[in-house]
Design goal:
Blueprint: H1 10-41, H2 45-48, H3 50-59, H4 64-67, H5 74-85, H6 88-101, H7 105-129, E1 132-134, E2 137-139, H8 142-148, H9 153-187, H10 191-206, H11 209-238, H12 243-254, H13 265-280, H14 287-291, H15 299-326, H16 339-350, H17 353-384, H18 388-407, H19 410-434, H20 436-451, H21 477-481
Antiparallel strand pairs: 1-2
């Protein structure tokens, strides 16, 4: 198994060729072009409505509807999607980007997040509009709006298969690989033991469904994200005189003006955008699956919350890791990669005890990511077929991949993650590009009500011409006006 899952076999060659085609010739251009397009057509929604984003997020701490079985709260959905985002992409992925692309990769991570926040708004708003009812409240995502808005179930099934393979199998291998790597680097623990422990804990939670996942995520994610940011800020304050030099290094290396480590213009862009997309997932089509679970009065509200999640993930948490690493010379010494680079940088700042902090942080970040990844797989398995046997088989495969990830080689797992992530992102980006007008009309409907001093509310006939709207029919706009 280990020899087959290796970067230097025929399998590794196929994965590398697929990545080269997708990332070099298709996806980077698509992400940047559509990111800027969505930013302009929404009139910079990710900056203009930042206040609304924060307001909707914290209004979402009300649990009354959740207790009544009406889906998740906006804060819980934010926690689930942030759980999937705030994982190895933030701690290990940033380290990989710097070691392969140089400090300039961070600039491109920032850029893809700033424009990607508009993409995140569009895809999550669409997911809310076309969500469907289920026993836990609601579910939805790209597969659902591909079927209902585009009338292309085949495309929805293709996306559902890709995201199930990507998140349900490959990404959870990435997460457990990073957890195991952290414990091996800090305490030399057998990675198989770590894999067994994680599989057992995850199994207890995932068999409880989305509501149990939501409860765990809304506790774990805020506590450890805030703790990690505080530690990073302490390090920056202790090294405040060096911070301007780090900014200078990031910007100069981003445009190939300074060769550092992997260096170079192309390497910085490629690794920055790859790891940036892996971290914030904007446009990938993953977060809309969480966004669709929310009971909310207007689809645009959840689009705004998910847009905020993109910004928090990369601009705040990924930047925290970047500065921890770049304020040392750890990334220029030896061949250390992944989470161990972040551990070494933290230890250089705060002493050996920091290894324990990073190890615990990566455990909870990656563990919460596993919960988010699992739910994305579940929602799409249920799109393909609602027969219980398929969900049971998926759960078993999910837990098996936890064990595979803990004991496999880092390089090939990251490469496979990039391949499947790129493929599903292309499918989703094409779909939301075709459905942009619906998201823009929904945003305008929301803003019109806000300007009139009303609480934005959406009904199945709020926008003329929409078809297959299942979850907004409890009252119509027409009936309300009578």
């Amino acid at each position: 198994m280990e020899n087959w899952f290796s970067a230097d076999t025929w399998f590794g060659d196929i994965v590398a060729i697929g990545n080269d085609i997708i990332w070099t010739y298709i996806l980077i251009a698509l992400l940047l072009i559509l990111g800027f397009y969505f930013t302009f057509v929404t009139k910079f929604v990710q900056f203009r409505l930042l206040g609304d984003m924060v307001r909707e997020l914290f209004r979402g701490t009300d649990r009354s509807d959740f207790k009544k079985g009406k889906g998740t709260t906006p804060f819980q959905a934010f926690s689930i999607s942030t759980a999937a985002r705030v994982g190895t992409g933030n701690l290990a992925g940033v380290a990989v980007a710097i070691s392969l692309g140089g400090p300039g990769a961070i600039f491109w991570m920032w850029l893809i997040a700033l424009i990607g926040a508009a993409t995140g708004f569009v895809e999550s708003t669409l997911a809310q509009i076309y969500k469907v009812k289920d026993k836990d409240g609601f579910r939805g995502g790209p597969a659902y709006y591909m079927e209902k808005a585009l009338g292309a179930r085949w495309l929805g099934v293709l996306f559902a298969v890709l995201i199930t393979l990507c998140f349900g199998l490959i990404f959870n291998a990435v997460q457990t690989n990073t957890i195991a790597d952290a414990f091996v680097g800090a305490y030399d623990i057998n990675p198989l033991i770590i894999g067994i422990i994680i599989a057992f804990l995850i199994g207890i939670i995932i068999f409880g469904g989305i509501r149990r996942i939501a409860v765990v995520a809304e506790v774990v994610v805020p506590v450890f994200a805030i703790s990690y940011i505080i530690v990073a800020l302490i390090v920056m304050v202790l090294n405040i005189t060096e911070v301007p030099a780090v900014f200078s290094m990031i910007f100069s290396n981003a445009f190939g003006l300074e060769e550092v480590v992997g260096g170079g213009f192309g390497a910085a862009i490629m690794n920055g955008i790859q790891r940036g997309l892996f971290s914030n997932e904007a446009g990938m089509g993953s977060a809309p699956n969480a966004a669709a679970t929310v009971y909310v009065s207007h689809p645009a509200k959840q689009g705004l919350v998910q847009s905020l999640s993109v910004l928090i993930d990369t601009i705040i948490i990924c930047s925290a890791t970047a500065f921890l690493i770049l304020l040392t010379d750890a990334y220029t010494v030896g061949e250390i990669e992944g989470i161990q680079l972040t551990q070494n940088a933290m230890a250089a700042h705060l002493g050996d005890w920091a290894n324990l902090f990073v190890t615990i942080a990566i455990f909870f970040f990656a563990f919460s990511s596993l919960l988010g990844n699992y739910y994305y797989g579940q929602a799409n398995i249920e799109f393909i077929s609602e027969k219980p046997i398929y969900l049971t088989l998926f759960r078993i495969a999910f837990l098996i991949m936890v064990l595979v990830g803990a004991t496999s080689e880092l390089a090939i797992i990251w490469q496979m993650a990039d391949l499947f992530m790129g493929a599903m992102a292309i499918v989703n980006l094409v779909a939301i590009a075709l459905l942009t007008k619906i998201a823009i009309r929904t945003l305008k409907h929301y803003q019109t009500q806000r300007r009139e001093g009303k609480e934005p509310t959406f009904y199945h006939d709020s926008l003329s011409g929409l078809k297959n709207i299942e979850s907004w029919d409890y009252e119509s706009e027409t009936e309300k006006k009578q």
